[in-house]
Amino acid sequence: MNEVQRQQYRGNEAALAWHAEVGTAGGDDRAAGIERGANGITAWFLREAAAAWAACGAFEWVALGYLAISSALIAAFAENLARPVKLIGVQALVAAVIVVLCWIEAHGGTDRNVCPTPTQRFWHFWRHWYPHLFFLFCFEEMGKLVHLVTPGWQDAKLIAFDQWLTGVNPSLWLERFAHPALNEFMQFAYFTYFLFLLILGGILYYRRDLKSYWAVMTYSAAGYVSGYVISMFFPVQSPWFTFAGMWHGDLAGAPFTGLINLIEKCGRVHGAAFPSQHVAGAVAALWGAWRHRRWLFWIFLPSVLCMCVSTVYVRNHYVADVFGGIVTGTLGYVIGSRVMKLQGAVATVQKNNNSFP
Question: Which end of the chain, N or C, is less surrounded by CB atoms within 10 Å?
Answer without folding.
Answer: N
